[in-house]
Design goal:
Number of helices: 6
Number of strands: 0
Helix content: 55-70%
Largest sheet: none
Distance between the termini: 27 Å
Shape: globular
Radius of gyration: 14 Å
Strand content: under 5%
Length: 111
């Protein structure tokens, strides 16, 4: 059987702007440790659908784990401009607010 990655890539051949497929492929790439490719897919998902909440959250988490709290917060602020943020996004924003760029929120490590 084909892997999820192969199936998402095939789906994107049919619909290159599918935010859901871009996001899901980004998740697979992230699990494989290919962070730069995953970030690019999350960004593409957001460009394809600026209301795609999960892509903002995953992208913000990535930057938070890289200790770039300012960039993570900018992503979450952009989300607020385009959509009603999910409880998860609001929780992440709350965790990151007021932290220095050196902070690494423990709750982020498990998702």
């Amino acid at each position: 059987p084909d892997s999820a990655k192969v199936l998402y890539e095939r789906g994107l051949q049919l619909d290159a702007h599918s935010a859901d497929l871009l996001f899901r492929l980004g998740c697979v790439l992230s699990q494989e440790g290919n962070d730069s490719a995953a970030v690019a897919k999350f960004q593409s998902a957001i460009l394809s659908d600026p209301t795609y909440d999960e892509a903002y959250v995953r992208l913000a988490r990535y930057y938070a784990l890289q200790r770039d709290t300012a960039q993570a917060l900018r992503i979450l602020e952009t989300e607020i401009e385009h959509t009603t943020p999910s409880p998860e996004a609001l929780s992440l924003r709350h965790q990151l607010s007021g932290r220095s760029s050196e902070a690494r929120p423990p709750a982020l490590l498990h998702n």
